[in-house]
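<goal> How does this chain fold?
<sample>
Here is the protein in question

***
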Amino acid sequence: MKQQEEDRWLLARCRDAIRLGEKSPQFVGFLDEREVVLARQVLQEEGCENARLWGGYEGAERQMLGVFPDYWPASEEEFPIAAVTVRYRREDSLSHRDFLGAFLGAGVQRAAIGDILPEEGRCVLFLKEDTAPFLLSQIEKIGRVGVSLQRGCSLPLPQAHDFLPIEGVIASGRLDCAAACLLGTSREKASVLIRTGMVQLNHRECTECSREIHEGDLLSVRSKGRFCIDRLGPVTKKGRICLAGRKYR
């Protein structure tokens, strides 16, 4: 029930942004991957074309929705997003959870924080522009680790995720076939997981074993992990489909 209420609130905010965006640029977010799917749905339903989603870099998971008047180019430079680099000793191990906990503990709202990309000795953050000055002036430690923050970032960015590649051959492009391949289990067991609501397809629960899957689809299986389908094909001489994907570690 809480999730449904949050979704209704988000849909209403997106529709308000579309309406107000006829006169001046409007922004909503940062949105998580499931919320991005809902935002795209609203844009399609409302026929809003001069809008885009952007998280500060290509491939960002958390993104901001920007809606612009017809005469105003929907450019990524217009988004009120600031990149911040956090530096610390390479021997100090800090995780995504450490950074997020520190920022939320400092009173920053989750919607003001985009992707957090940690690596040895460095972490790159993407924040709402009006949030950056507060963190730059307030954060000196993450847990017990001393850190220094500065605006901007250098390339290449830290990798957001590590992946385990998966390849296999499936009988057809059905969800149960793909899930069985990605999980390394039987089609029957994969079907049970799907029918009992354990599987999300593109961040939405899907209980239809026969649902057709496509390249780029994301699968989440409760307690089993997250997966991305990168390639479907070619088709073998026996009519089966080669599948290539990866599991988020």
Remarks:
- The first helix runs from residue 2 to 20.
- The chain has a mean pLDDT of 94.
- The radius of gyration is 21 Å.
- The CA atoms of residues 196 and 207 lie 7 Å apart.
